[in-house]
Design brief:
inorganic pyrophosphatase (n-terminal core), 2 domains, globular, about 40% helix, alpha/beta, six-stranded mixed beta sheet, five-stranded parallel beta sheet, Diaminopimelate Epimerase, Chain A, domain 1
Length: about 325
Protein backbone atom coordinates (compact mmCIF):
# COMPACT_ATOMS: atom_id res chain seq x y z
CA UNK A 1 0.00 0.00 0.00
CA UNK A 2 2.88 2.37 0.77
CA UNK A 3 4.10 2.01 -2.82
CA UNK A 4 0.84 3.07 -4.44
CA UNK A 5 0.47 5.94 -1.94
CA UNK A 6 3.96 7.15 -2.89
CA UNK A 7 3.23 6.80 -6.60
CA UNK A 8 0.05 8.86 -6.27
CA UNK A 9 1.92 11.56 -4.36
CA UNK A 10 4.60 11.72 -7.06
CA UNK A 11 2.04 11.87 -9.87
CA UNK A 12 0.28 14.79 -8.20
CA UNK A 13 3.57 16.55 -7.52
CA UNK A 14 4.62 16.23 -11.18
CA UNK A 15 1.30 17.44 -12.58
CA UNK A 16 0.38 20.91 -13.82
CA UNK A 17 -3.37 20.75 -14.56
CA UNK A 18 -5.49 18.10 -12.84
CA UNK A 19 -8.95 16.92 -13.88
CA UNK A 20 -11.55 15.65 -11.39
CA UNK A 21 -15.07 14.49 -12.22
CA UNK A 22 -18.38 13.31 -10.76
CA UNK A 23 -19.84 10.07 -12.07
CA UNK A 24 -23.25 10.03 -13.83
CA UNK A 25 -26.04 10.40 -11.27
CA UNK A 26 -23.46 11.50 -8.73
CA UNK A 27 -24.03 10.53 -5.10
CA UNK A 28 -22.50 11.62 -1.80
CA UNK A 29 -19.43 9.41 -2.21
CA UNK A 30 -18.71 10.67 -5.71
CA UNK A 31 -19.18 14.34 -4.79
CA UNK A 32 -17.54 14.01 -1.37
CA UNK A 33 -14.37 12.32 -2.63
CA UNK A 34 -13.99 14.66 -5.61
CA UNK A 35 -14.53 17.79 -3.50
CA UNK A 36 -12.13 16.53 -0.82
CA UNK A 37 -9.47 16.16 -3.49
CA UNK A 38 -10.36 19.56 -4.94
CA UNK A 39 -9.80 21.24 -1.55
CA UNK A 40 -6.52 19.41 -1.04
CA UNK A 41 -5.14 20.10 -4.52
CA UNK A 42 -6.03 23.78 -4.49
CA UNK A 43 -4.46 24.10 -1.04
CA UNK A 44 -1.11 23.08 -2.55
CA UNK A 45 -1.63 25.52 -5.43
CA UNK A 46 -2.39 23.00 -8.14
CA UNK A 47 -4.49 24.02 -11.11
CA UNK A 48 -7.65 21.92 -10.85
CA UNK A 49 -10.84 21.52 -12.86
CA UNK A 50 -13.72 19.57 -11.34
CA UNK A 51 -16.54 18.80 -13.77
CA UNK A 52 -20.10 17.75 -12.97
CA UNK A 53 -20.05 15.07 -15.70
CA UNK A 54 -23.21 13.82 -17.39
CA UNK A 55 -25.60 14.83 -14.58
CA UNK A 56 -26.54 17.89 -12.59
CA UNK A 57 -25.62 17.89 -8.91
CA UNK A 58 -28.59 17.30 -6.61
CA UNK A 59 -29.71 20.27 -4.47
CA UNK A 60 -28.56 18.49 -1.30
CA UNK A 61 -25.06 17.74 -2.59
CA UNK A 62 -24.82 21.29 -3.94
CA UNK A 63 -24.61 22.46 -0.30
CA UNK A 64 -21.25 20.73 0.26
CA UNK A 65 -18.29 23.10 0.71
CA UNK A 66 -16.70 23.85 -2.66
CA UNK A 67 -19.67 22.63 -4.73
CA UNK A 68 -19.96 26.09 -6.28
CA UNK A 69 -16.56 25.47 -7.91
CA UNK A 70 -17.84 22.49 -9.91
CA UNK A 71 -17.82 23.25 -13.64
CA UNK A 72 -21.06 22.20 -15.41
CA UNK A 73 -19.36 20.22 -18.19
CA UNK A 74 -18.97 16.59 -19.17
CA UNK A 75 -15.80 14.83 -20.32
CA UNK A 76 -16.49 15.53 -24.00
CA UNK A 77 -16.93 19.26 -23.47
CA UNK A 78 -13.25 19.53 -22.51
CA UNK A 79 -10.03 19.89 -24.42
CA UNK A 80 -8.27 16.94 -22.78
CA UNK A 81 -4.94 18.20 -24.12
CA UNK A 82 -5.13 20.88 -21.40
CA UNK A 83 -4.73 18.24 -18.64
CA UNK A 84 -1.81 16.04 -17.68
CA UNK A 85 -3.41 14.16 -14.76
CA UNK A 86 -6.92 12.75 -14.31
CA UNK A 87 -7.89 11.52 -10.84
CA UNK A 88 -10.89 9.22 -11.31
CA UNK A 89 -12.88 8.68 -8.13
CA UNK A 90 -15.69 6.27 -7.22
CA UNK A 91 -15.93 4.95 -10.78
CA UNK A 92 -15.71 1.23 -11.53
CA UNK A 93 -15.23 1.63 -15.27
CA UNK A 94 -14.79 4.25 -17.99
CA UNK A 95 -18.56 4.41 -18.53
CA UNK A 96 -18.78 5.93 -15.06
CA UNK A 97 -16.82 8.90 -16.39
CA UNK A 98 -19.37 9.45 -19.13
CA UNK A 99 -22.06 7.38 -20.80
CA UNK A 100 -22.47 9.78 -23.70
CA UNK A 101 -19.66 8.29 -25.81
CA UNK A 102 -16.75 5.91 -25.41
CA UNK A 103 -14.10 7.47 -23.15
CA UNK A 104 -10.57 7.21 -24.56
CA UNK A 105 -7.53 8.51 -22.69
CA UNK A 106 -4.86 10.23 -24.81
CA UNK A 107 -1.31 8.93 -24.38
CA UNK A 108 -0.10 12.04 -22.55
CA UNK A 109 -2.79 11.89 -19.82
CA UNK A 110 -1.77 10.06 -16.65
CA UNK A 111 -4.70 8.50 -14.82
CA UNK A 112 -5.23 7.56 -11.18
CA UNK A 113 -8.23 5.42 -10.25
CA UNK A 114 -9.37 5.42 -6.60
CA UNK A 115 -12.42 3.27 -5.99
CA UNK A 116 -14.17 0.67 -3.82
CA UNK A 117 -16.26 -1.27 -6.34
CA UNK A 118 -15.41 -4.98 -6.56
CA UNK A 119 -16.09 -4.95 -10.30
CA UNK A 120 -13.29 -2.42 -10.91
CA UNK A 121 -10.53 -4.14 -12.91
CA UNK A 122 -8.12 -1.20 -12.59
CA UNK A 123 -8.27 0.84 -15.78
CA UNK A 124 -5.90 3.60 -14.71
CA UNK A 125 -2.13 4.00 -14.85
CA UNK A 126 -2.25 3.89 -11.05
CA UNK A 127 -5.04 2.01 -9.27
CA UNK A 128 -5.96 2.28 -5.59
CA UNK A 129 -8.90 -0.10 -5.26
CA UNK A 130 -10.18 -1.45 -1.94
CA UNK A 131 -13.26 -3.54 -2.60
CA UNK A 132 -13.87 -4.12 1.11
CA UNK A 133 -14.07 -0.39 1.84
CA UNK A 134 -17.62 0.92 2.37
CA UNK A 135 -16.87 4.17 0.53
CA UNK A 136 -14.30 5.79 -1.72
CA UNK A 137 -14.20 8.62 0.82
CA UNK A 138 -12.85 6.19 3.42
CA UNK A 139 -10.03 5.22 1.03
CA UNK A 140 -9.26 8.90 0.41
CA UNK A 141 -9.12 9.55 4.16
CA UNK A 142 -6.57 6.75 4.64
CA UNK A 143 -4.55 8.04 1.69
CA UNK A 144 -4.51 11.59 3.07
CA UNK A 145 -3.48 10.36 6.51
CA UNK A 146 -0.70 8.18 5.08
CA UNK A 147 0.64 11.14 3.08
CA UNK A 148 0.35 13.41 6.13
CA UNK A 149 -2.03 15.72 4.31
CA UNK A 150 -3.77 18.21 6.59
CA UNK A 151 -7.48 17.47 6.67
CA UNK A 152 -9.25 20.80 6.80
CA UNK A 153 -12.79 21.34 8.02
CA UNK A 154 -13.99 21.45 4.40
CA UNK A 155 -12.25 18.18 3.53
CA UNK A 156 -13.61 16.54 6.68
CA UNK A 157 -17.20 17.51 5.86
CA UNK A 158 -16.89 16.17 2.32
CA UNK A 159 -15.34 12.87 3.39
CA UNK A 160 -17.80 12.35 6.25
CA UNK A 161 -20.75 13.01 3.93
CA UNK A 162 -19.46 10.50 1.39
CA UNK A 163 -18.99 7.79 4.01
CA UNK A 164 -22.38 8.52 5.56
CA UNK A 165 -24.05 8.32 2.16
CA UNK A 166 -22.44 5.12 0.89
CA UNK A 167 -22.95 3.24 4.15
CA UNK A 168 -26.65 4.11 4.12
CA UNK A 169 -26.17 6.12 7.29
CA UNK A 170 -23.95 3.34 8.75
CA UNK A 171 -26.60 0.66 8.11
CA UNK A 172 -24.90 -1.41 5.39
CA UNK A 173 -22.88 -4.51 6.24
CA UNK A 174 -19.67 -3.01 4.84
CA UNK A 175 -19.63 -0.56 7.78
CA UNK A 176 -16.87 -1.51 10.24
CA UNK A 177 -15.36 -0.33 13.50
CA UNK A 178 -12.69 1.37 11.38
CA UNK A 179 -15.44 3.32 9.61
CA UNK A 180 -16.77 4.65 12.91
CA UNK A 181 -13.25 5.48 14.09
CA UNK A 182 -12.55 7.46 10.92
CA UNK A 183 -15.86 9.30 11.15
CA UNK A 184 -15.16 10.14 14.80
CA UNK A 185 -11.91 11.82 13.71
CA UNK A 186 -13.68 13.69 10.89
CA UNK A 187 -16.43 14.98 13.18
CA UNK A 188 -13.83 16.27 15.62
CA UNK A 189 -12.42 18.37 12.78
CA UNK A 190 -15.89 19.42 11.57
CA UNK A 191 -18.26 19.42 14.56
CA UNK A 192 -21.00 21.08 12.47
CA UNK A 193 -21.47 17.84 10.49
CA UNK A 194 -25.12 17.59 11.57
CA UNK A 195 -25.87 20.82 9.72
CA UNK A 196 -24.27 19.34 6.60
CA UNK A 197 -26.39 16.20 6.91
CA UNK A 198 -29.54 18.28 7.42
CA UNK A 199 -28.80 20.22 4.23
CA UNK A 200 -28.04 17.00 2.39
CA UNK A 201 -31.37 15.41 3.30
CA UNK A 202 -33.66 18.45 3.36
CA UNK A 203 -33.23 20.20 0.02
CA UNK A 204 -35.98 18.55 -1.98
CA UNK A 205 -37.76 20.17 -4.91
CA UNK A 206 -41.57 20.42 -4.73
CA UNK A 207 -42.01 17.78 -7.45
CA UNK A 208 -40.01 15.13 -5.58
CA UNK A 209 -42.80 13.99 -3.21
CA UNK A 210 -45.05 13.66 -6.24
CA UNK A 211 -42.44 11.48 -7.93
CA UNK A 212 -42.21 9.32 -4.80
CA UNK A 213 -45.98 8.94 -4.84
CA UNK A 214 -45.98 7.85 -8.49
CA UNK A 215 -43.34 5.24 -7.76
CA UNK A 216 -45.27 3.86 -4.80
CA UNK A 217 -48.45 3.61 -6.86
CA UNK A 218 -46.73 1.61 -9.62
CA UNK A 219 -45.33 -1.32 -7.62
CA UNK A 220 -45.61 -4.78 -9.13
CA UNK A 221 -44.21 -8.09 -7.90
CA UNK A 222 -42.67 -11.03 -9.75
CA UNK A 223 -41.24 -14.48 -8.99
CA UNK A 224 -44.00 -15.46 -6.57
CA UNK A 225 -43.91 -12.07 -4.87
CA UNK A 226 -40.18 -12.12 -4.04
CA UNK A 227 -39.06 -9.37 -6.44
CA UNK A 228 -40.72 -5.93 -6.34
CA UNK A 229 -40.41 -3.43 -9.20
CA UNK A 230 -41.60 0.13 -9.68
CA UNK A 231 -41.23 1.34 -13.26
CA UNK A 232 -42.24 4.81 -14.47
CA UNK A 233 -42.55 5.71 -18.17
CA UNK A 234 -41.37 9.09 -19.41
CA UNK A 235 -44.90 9.91 -20.63
CA UNK A 236 -46.19 9.73 -17.04
CA UNK A 237 -43.41 12.01 -15.81
CA UNK A 238 -44.15 14.56 -18.53
CA UNK A 239 -47.87 14.42 -17.76
CA UNK A 240 -47.08 15.37 -14.16
CA UNK A 241 -44.36 17.92 -15.08
CA UNK A 242 -41.70 15.91 -13.26
CA UNK A 243 -38.04 15.55 -14.16
CA UNK A 244 -36.34 12.15 -13.69
CA UNK A 245 -34.49 12.00 -10.36
CA UNK A 246 -31.82 9.39 -9.63
CA UNK A 247 -31.91 9.99 -5.88
CA UNK A 248 -35.61 9.05 -5.79
CA UNK A 249 -34.75 5.90 -7.76
CA UNK A 250 -32.37 4.78 -5.01
CA UNK A 251 -34.80 5.75 -2.26
CA UNK A 252 -37.63 3.73 -3.81
CA UNK A 253 -35.55 0.58 -4.31
CA UNK A 254 -34.52 0.85 -0.65
CA UNK A 255 -38.17 1.17 0.37
CA UNK A 256 -39.15 -1.86 -1.70
CA UNK A 257 -36.50 -4.14 -0.20
CA UNK A 258 -37.59 -3.10 3.30
CA UNK A 259 -40.77 -5.14 2.89
CA UNK A 260 -40.52 -8.63 4.37
CA UNK A 261 -40.66 -11.16 1.54
CA UNK A 262 -39.53 -8.74 -1.17
CA UNK A 263 -35.95 -9.97 -1.51
CA UNK A 264 -34.95 -7.49 -4.23
CA UNK A 265 -36.30 -3.99 -4.76
CA UNK A 266 -35.92 -2.50 -8.24
CA UNK A 267 -36.77 1.04 -9.23
CA UNK A 268 -36.85 1.99 -12.91
CA UNK A 269 -37.35 5.37 -14.48
CA UNK A 270 -37.46 6.23 -18.18
CA UNK A 271 -35.15 9.24 -18.37
CA UNK A 272 -35.37 9.80 -22.13
CA UNK A 273 -35.73 8.03 -25.45
CA UNK A 274 -34.03 4.64 -25.11
CA UNK A 275 -32.61 5.43 -21.68
CA UNK A 276 -33.80 3.73 -18.51
CA UNK A 277 -32.09 4.26 -15.15
CA UNK A 278 -32.34 1.38 -12.74
CA UNK A 279 -31.59 1.04 -9.02
CA UNK A 280 -31.25 -2.37 -7.35
CA UNK A 281 -31.31 -3.11 -3.62
CA UNK A 282 -31.52 -6.42 -1.75
CA UNK A 283 -32.35 -7.62 1.75
CA UNK A 284 -29.79 -10.43 1.53
CA UNK A 285 -26.65 -9.69 -0.54
CA UNK A 286 -25.15 -13.08 0.39
CA UNK A 287 -27.88 -14.76 -1.68
CA UNK A 288 -28.92 -12.05 -4.11
CA UNK A 289 -25.83 -10.17 -5.31
CA UNK A 290 -27.46 -7.28 -7.17
CA UNK A 291 -24.13 -6.12 -8.60
CA UNK A 292 -24.04 -9.46 -10.44
CA UNK A 293 -27.53 -8.79 -11.80
CA UNK A 294 -26.67 -5.23 -12.84
CA UNK A 295 -23.42 -6.33 -14.49
CA UNK A 296 -25.13 -9.21 -16.29
CA UNK A 297 -27.44 -6.74 -18.08
CA UNK A 298 -24.32 -5.42 -19.79
CA UNK A 299 -24.93 -1.87 -18.66
CA UNK A 300 -24.42 -1.67 -14.90
CA UNK A 301 -22.52 -2.62 -11.78
CA UNK A 302 -22.13 -1.72 -8.15
CA UNK A 303 -22.07 -3.57 -4.84
CA UNK A 304 -23.65 -6.78 -3.61
CA UNK A 305 -26.35 -4.93 -1.66
CA UNK A 306 -26.76 -1.88 -3.91
CA UNK A 307 -26.24 -1.51 -7.64
CA UNK A 308 -27.42 0.44 -10.65
CA UNK A 309 -27.62 0.40 -14.42
CA UNK A 310 -28.41 2.67 -17.34
CA UNK A 311 -30.09 0.67 -20.07
CA UNK A 312 -30.13 2.14 -23.61
CA UNK A 313 -33.55 0.80 -24.57
CA UNK A 314 -37.25 1.32 -24.01
CA UNK A 315 -38.78 0.79 -20.58
CA UNK A 316 -40.61 -2.38 -21.64
CA UNK A 317 -37.43 -3.91 -23.10
CA UNK A 318 -35.44 -2.91 -20.03
CA UNK A 319 -37.93 -4.60 -17.71
CA UNK A 320 -37.91 -7.78 -19.79
CA UNK A 321 -34.09 -7.80 -19.80
CA UNK A 322 -33.93 -7.45 -16.02
CA UNK A 323 -36.53 -10.15 -15.38
CA UNK A 324 -34.81 -12.56 -17.80
CA UNK A 325 -31.45 -11.81 -16.18
CA UNK A 326 -32.78 -12.52 -12.69
CA UNK A 327 -34.45 -15.71 -13.93
CA UNK A 328 -31.16 -16.90 -15.47
CA UNK A 329 -29.05 -16.09 -12.41
CA UNK A 330 -31.62 -17.29 -9.86
CA UNK A 331 -33.64 -20.14 -11.32
CA UNK A 332 -34.62 -21.12 -7.79
CA UNK A 333 -37.04 -18.18 -7.77
CA UNK A 334 -39.32 -19.95 -10.24
CA UNK A 335 -41.36 -18.37 -13.00
CA UNK A 336 -41.31 -14.66 -13.72
Amino acid sequence: MKKIYSQIKSAISDSHHILLHLHPGSDADSAGSALAFYHYLTSINKKVTLISGDSNLSPGLATLPGADQITPQNFFDLNIADFDLFIILDSSEKRQISKLEEVVFPAHLKTIVIDHHASNQGFGDLNLIEADSPATCQIVYKLFKALKIKISKEIALCLFTGIFGDTGGFKYSSTTAETFSICAQLTKIAPNFTETLFNLENNDRPDRPKLLGLHLSHIETHFNGRIAISALPLSLLKKNNINPDDSVNAEISNTLKSVVGWEIGISMIEAGKDMVRVSFRTRDPAIFDVSEIATATGYGGGHKAAAGASLPMSLSKAKRLILRTISRLHPELGNI
